[in-house]
Amino acid sequence: FVYIASHDLREPLRTTSGFVELLQKQYQGKLEGKGDLYLSFITQATDRMKLLIDDLLDYSRIDGKAKSQEFDCNTLLREVLTDLGAALTEAGAMVSADPLPIVAGYRTGIKQLFQNLITNGIKFRKTDVPPKIHIHAEKINDEWHFSFTDNGIGIEEQHREKIFVIFQRLHTRKEYEGSGIGLAHCRKIVELHHGNIWVESIPGAGSTFYFTLPAAQEAIIKNQTEQHAPALT
Ligand code: ADP
Question: Does the CB atom of residue 207 touch ligand 1 within 6 A?
Answer without folding.
Answer: yes
